[in-house]
């Protein structure tokens, strides 16, 4: 079975590469030092610092493995190739939410970068998937878990504007 492609913007790729570098060069050394200090305190069977440091080490190593896999399977969206005519991954869209009578703005990203609090929605989410392929001026009705949502597409820009 082939591994799933991970869709990332260039910004998302850089962020994950920096995090991986930080984990490998800084955090690994910090936790190794904590383990060394905890070992120096004697009996490891009742040593909370040692247990905590070993747990932190396992979390760091798991995150490193996950990031390496993600980067190995990354499909980077090139801003120059993002269409301004149709909604696609890597673009920022300004929409008019008909139910709430307000403008909203979303950046469509791969699921690995999704962060709804920052207005970054996954291309696999109901709204992100429903918007893909639509053009300025179109009204889009999306079946969402809490009921249908209706948007009018106002603008489409590359994510870097």
Folded structure, characterized:
This protein has 161 residues and is α/β, with parallel strands linked by helices. It is 38% helix and 27% strand. The protein contains three helices and seven strands, in the order βααββββαββ. The strands form two sheets. Strands 5-4-3-7-6 form a five-stranded mixed β-sheet. A two-stranded parallel sheet has the order 1-2. The radius of gyration is 21 Å and the shape is elongated.
List keywords for this structure.
161 residues, alpha/beta, 5-stranded mixed beta sheet, 3 helices, 7 strands, 38% helix
How big is the Rg?
21 Å
Mean pLDDT: 90
Side by side, the strands of the main sheet go: 5-4-3-7-6
Report the count of strand segments. 7
The tally of helices reads: 3
Shape designation = elongated
Helix-strand makeup class: alpha/beta
The residue ranges in which pLDDT falls below 50 over 5 or more consecutive positions are: none
Secondary-structure element string:
EHHEEEEHEE
Report the oligomer: single chain
Terminal Cα span: 37 Å
Question: Which percent range fits the helix content?
Answer: 25-40%
Give the biggest sheet: 5 strands, mixed
Proportion of residues in extended strands: 25-35%
